Amino acid sequence: LTEEQVLSSLLQQLHLSKVPVLGKADMEGLVIPAHVRAQYVALLQRSHGTRSRGK
Amino acid sequence: RFSQNFREVAGRFLVSEASTHLLVFAMEQRLPPNSELVQAVLRLFQEPVPKAALRRHERLFPGSDRARVTVQWLHVRDDGSNRTSLIDSRLVSIHESGWKALDVTEAVNFWQQLHRPRQPLLLQVSVQREHLGPLASSAHRLIRFTSQGPSGAGQGEPQLELHTLDFRDYGAQGNCDPKAPITEGTRCCRQEMYIDLQGLKWAENWVLEPPGFLAYECVGTCQQPPESLTFKWPFLGPRQCIASETTSLPMIVSMEEGGKRRPQVVSLPNMRVQKCSCAWDGAPVPRKLAP
Question: What is the Cα Rg of chain B in Å?
Answer without folding.
Answer: 28
